[in-house]
Amino acid sequence: MNTIKERIEDIKTNGYQLDFGTVFESAFENYKKIVLYAGLMLLVFMVLFIAFMTTGIIYYIGINNMDAFNEKIKHFSTLKTIPLNILLPFEAGIILLSGFLSPFYAGFLKMAHYGDKDEEFHLSSMFTYYKSPYFGNIFISTIILSLISSGISLIFELAEIQIIGVFISLTISFLTFLTVPLIVFGNLNAIDAIKSSTIIVSKQPLIIVGLLIVAIIAAIIGLFGFCIGIFFTIPFLYSMYYAIYSAIIGVDFEDNSNQLDFEI
Fold first, then answer.
1. What is the DSSP code string of 6-45?
2. pLDDT for residue 263 is more than 60
3. Which ranges of 117-223 does DSSP label H, i.e. alpha helix?
4. What's the rounded Cα separation, in Å, for the pair 253 and 264?
5. 50-74: per-residue pLDDT in tens?
6. What is the pTM of this model?
7. 230 touches 43 (CB < 8 A)
8. Cis before residue 83, ω within 30 degrees of 0?
9. Using an 8 Å Cβ cutoff, are 264 and 8 in contact?
10. Is 201 exposed, middle or buried (0-12, 13-18, 19+ CB in 10 A)?
11. Which of 129, 140, 143, 139 has its CA nearest to residue 254?
12. What's the CA gap between 245 and 239, in Å, rounded?
């Protein structure tokens, strides 16, 4: 069996074939297997997360200061440009929070894998990637990509050409969306996973962007189900991520416990 290194080198040199219909069908079949469990998981997590964050904010600010805090929020929402002394700490907090939550969301890829193999999925599997070596690499890759995207967006926002910053940030997100699957299934480190994802996606950008647009539209449809429906449509995104990765790379490398360090 080829190693992940050899597979990526082959893609770098020869590219790969990707059939839109086959990948979509694979993603949809996977989605049907995980939708109920994944949707309930997302719903419960969001309720607990909102409760935790609300409690934390109230505790930090103080119940007596909530009215003043709300007034400040309303004031900042009317400003065309948020002051840097407010924006930078806020962005830093969001980036750190994203880094800590990324391994949890990676658990949905694990769920998709179990669904693909028709194996039973356990709640504890959602937290698999908080263990070494996955957590460090997922956290670092998320922080790196978030810093780059936020930095670019901020630069163009200050230059008052936000649309360019948004386009560049979306392009970065698109090229690197296979970073986490490459870490959890390919055992790559953060930097190699980012570089490899960029190479892989750039070989078939039109087909992949078409698949992701369809997946995003399908996820957004859940908003029409009293908003709660979105918790049961978002899992289709993870099924699509898994289907794309599986079609291009395969998941035969998942049990390789040693990280493979290589230059691309």
1. HHHHHHHHH-----HHHHHHHHHHHHHHHHHHHHHHHHHH
2. no
3. 134-158, 162-175, 179-184, 190-203, 205-220
4. 19
5. 998 888 888 878 777 777 777 777 7
6. 0.87
7. no
8. no
9. yes
10. buried
11. 129
12. 10
Estimate the crossing angle of helix 84-116 against helix 235-248, to 10 degrees: 70
The secondary structure of residue 260, as a DSSP letter, is: -
Residues 133, 193: Cα–Cα separation, whole Å: 13
Q: What's residue 81's pLDDT?
A: 66
DSSP 91-143: HHHHHHHHHHHHHHHHHHHHHHHHHHTT----GGGGGGGGSTTHHHHHHHHHH
Structure tokens at 248: 């291009």
Q: Which residues contact 263 (CB under 8 A, 6 or more apart)?
A: none
DSSP 31-81: HHHHHHHHHHHHHHHHHHHHHHHHHHHHHHH-GGGHHHHHHHHHHHHH-SS
Q: Rounded to a whole number, what is the largest CA-CA distance in the chain?
A: 64
**Lookup: tokens for 125:** 């599997």
24 Rama sector, left if φ>0, alpha if ψ -120 to 50, beta otherwise? alpha
Q: What is the pLDDT of residues 41-56, one digit of tens each?
A: 999 999 998 998 888 8
In the block, residue with structure tokens 């893609």: 11
DSSP 257: -
d(CA 176, CA 159): 26
Which among 132, 69, 135 is positioned nearest to 101, based on CA atoms? 135
- Written as six digits, the tokens of 228 are 């709660």
- pLDDT at site 79: 64
**Residue type for 130, please?**
Y
44: tokens are 């419960």
C-alpha to C-alpha distance for 58 and 196, rounded to whole angstroms: 43
